[in-house]
Amino acid sequence: MTLEEVMHAAPVIPVLVLDGEHDPVALAETLVEAGLPVLEVTLRTPQALGAIRAMAGVKGAIVGAGTVLNEWQLFEAREAGARFIVAPGLTKGLTRAVASTGLAYLPGVATAGDIMRGLDLGLTRFKFFPAEASGGLPALRALSAPFGAVRFCPTGGITEASAPEWLAEPAVTCIGGSWMVKKGMSLAEIGDAAARAASLARS
Ligand SMILES: O=C(O)C(=O)C[C@H](O)[C@H](O)COP(=O)(O)O
Question: Mind telling me which residue stretches traverse the membrane in this protein (predicted)?
């Protein structure tokens, strides 16, 4: 699966920090059914790899690993069945390692220098991270201006309220966020929030 396909599959990628509160399969089924098939499971908890393995078997789910910081985590994520890899930043070593696996790769950028290093490595699609803390929409607009062909998946600090303006931006293909799956939400509440996110329009 190409990164382009991953980024176009849904307007919003739920960023999941799984700690055992919900059964991963039931959670994935809820999100897919609501219209959010692309699921980023962050490698921040001990449950993450097992969850990727379980969720990868859910019909219609496109499961990837987030917070991938090094080659070891990349290979663990691939072995668990991740179909795409998300990193908070961009390094040459991890970019080359992911390229050797053929998996879709969405590394994080926050500066023009980051983007230029990514372009040098053959990348044109990036996560803009942390989106709000890096200056929000004005920063993304200014940053994307010199890079006409580059497209972004802003993530970090985006809320249900701010999501529509991010998605209206021409340089934005999709956005990531955790607001659909917060601690204490029931599966029904998650399904409702995910359905609202899935119905958001893109530019
Ligand atoms: O760990 C990573 O590599 C990440 O992907 C970080 C996440 O993108 C943000 O934590 C999600 O941001 P919120 O929607 O503000 O919760």
Answer: none
